[in-house]
Specification:
3 helices; about 0% strand
């Protein structure tokens, strides 16, 4: 099993959506939950980048 790098997590947190970082302190529970989910998704994407091609990227033949 690969060890998780704390620097990778802190980098993911600092580069995540601003609303999600601020949303953790919101007085409404629903907003806090949505913010936590967004931050978790950002961390997971940074630690395990998707190998699927981006659907918005045009495939160009070489």
């Amino acid at each position: 099993m690969e060890r998780i790098d704390p620097h990778a997590i802190s980098d993911a947190l600092l580069t995540s959506a601003g609303w999600a970082r601020v949303g953790l302190t919101a007085p409404v529970q629903r907003i806090r939950e949505q913010a936590a989910k967004e931050l978790a998704l950002t961390i997971c994407e940074r630690l395990n980048p998707s190998r699927l091609p981006d659907r918005n990227q045009l495939p160009l033949p070489l």
